[in-house]
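New to this. Explain the following:
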Amino acid sequence: MSKFHEGERAVQSRSGVTDEAGRLGRGITSAIPDAARPFLESQRLAVLAGVDRSERVWASMVSGAPRLITAPSARTLRLAAGLPDADPLSEGLARGRPLGVLVVDPERRRRLRVNGRVMKADRDTIEIRTEEVFGNCPKYIQARALEPGTEPGRVGDARRSTALTESQRLAIERADTLFIASVHADAGADASHRGGQPGFVRVLDARRLLIPDYAGNNMFQTLGNIAADPRVGLLVVDFDTGTTRQLTGRARILWEPEALAELRGVARAVAVEVDEIVELAGRGPVGWRFVEYSPFNPR
């Protein structure tokens, strides 16, 4: 039985990678491997993907000290952190709700995706029952090293709008890292990473973004979800100031060469129509010193 749903299979087929994806899909398990536990326990960042009470999709982030992330059992992932009330995803952490978790190691360019359902969520802890666990390649992760002794900032009030301000547009255009949340009715929520040289995300206007889809693991979980359900959430983190910008909206996959002409050399892109933006000062991780861009980034 295929581990991929109809949207993923459709994108794999159109991209000509069905056989390769099938081989890679054998690595998707429902349990956390014992070998992954030391990695999880040493990590300081996790990106969350979920759905709020209005059924809008959001991406968020938690950060903290080592052992922020643990696996008490093979089917349980625990985060020793909660989301503040100002975070738009906080209301989507009810028991049984879908939640995707992307654990990222910026320094060593490693990542692990854990998708499942919320078992418990409060101000101090989030636990999920795992349904999918799999690793991803290191491509397009910009190396960042955490400076010792960095203290988190105070979370400010949420600044909400339905269109990007000029400063938000500039912040997105300067970003080298983006996280995207997507969903599927049966497969649940998923958080994924996108990276490139600053400017790889194109801000077309105050409500529209264009994100190139660079060659990756060819399983197409994100694009497959979008093919079946256009709702997405985006998270842009300023690693210097700790400000986060969360966007929710709808996406579609662009395949037509004329639509991709400005992106030079990509086979696909994701066009996003923004419905709402939430900006939070002091919400994101700080103290992550930039080291170098990924050697895989298109120049």
